[in-house]
Specification:
By secondary structure, the protein is α/β, with parallel strands linked by helices. The protein has a domain of 134 residues: 2-Layer Sandwich (Double Stranded RNA Binding Domain), CATH 3.30.160.670. The protein contains four helices and ten strands; from the N terminus they run H-E-E-E-H-E-H-E-E-E-E-E-E-H.
Length: 204
């Protein structure tokens, strides 16, 4: 059984920064889209899918056994609507989970905050009385947060020995969590569209 391998987003981000040798000028230029699929899987014979109406958040609390939390509807609903629109445009039919769908789409989201530390301001200077002194450098701390939405398509009829459904397609949309809610929605909508654009094998 072949499992999908998700590339490291950090490594991918470093690679793609070569597109902007002087650095990105806009927030959306930090956004990344990655997709992968099982080349041995026959998508042409599958027609129906099911998807939850919420996006689960991966948090430390959840990992440690806490109660699940979900992305706010103001962000989740537009993303889910865009996924459904693309699936429909590709010829798929959405059904309820209890209607025995051919595949399941599972969206999850997580947030990562990256901190950068360096020291600046250290230099020699002239003090009154002819004494050379050292101004000790002061710490500088900056941070930025990125959010990722991972959507996995699995086939519930193909289950492994440890009771896990086989993943046949997935995509990740990753970007800086900056800007207004409208800007966020527009950027992630663009990312979702790009994920489908580069996944033409899903088309009916």
């Amino acid at each position: 059984m072949k499992h999908l391998k998700i590339l490291s987003l950090v490594a991918l981000a470093v690679y793609l920064t070569g597109c902007y040798p002087n650095g990105p000028e806009y927030v959306d230029q930090y956004d990344l889209v990655y997709s992968n699929y099982d080349s041995q899987y026959d998508f042409t014979v599958k027609h129906t899918y099911a998807i939850p109406d919420k996006i689960l958040k991966i948090t430390d609390g959840l990992i440690n056994g806490g109660d699940p939390t979900f992305v706010k509807d103001m962000y989740a609903v537009p993303m889910l609507n865009q996924i459904n629109k693309n699936m429909s445009d590709f010829g798929w039919n959405k059904v309820a989970l209890n209607a025995n769908p051919d595949v399941l789409l599972t969206p999850v989201a997580y947030e990562l905050t990256t901190y950068s530390y360096w020291y600046g301001g250290g230099y020699w200077d002239w003090w009154y009385g002819g004494y050379w002194g050292w101004y000790y450098p002061y710490p500088v701390v900056t941070s930025y947060s990125t959010g990722s939405v991972l959507v996995t398509m699995s086939d519930p009829k193909l289950v492994s020995a440890d009771d896990k459904a086989r993943a046949v397609w997935s995509f990740v949309v990753n970007g800086l969590l900056e800007g207004s809610s409208a800007d966020f929605t527009a950027r992630y909508t663009k990312g979702i569209n790009q994920a489908f654009e580069q996944s033409q094998y899903l088309k009916k």
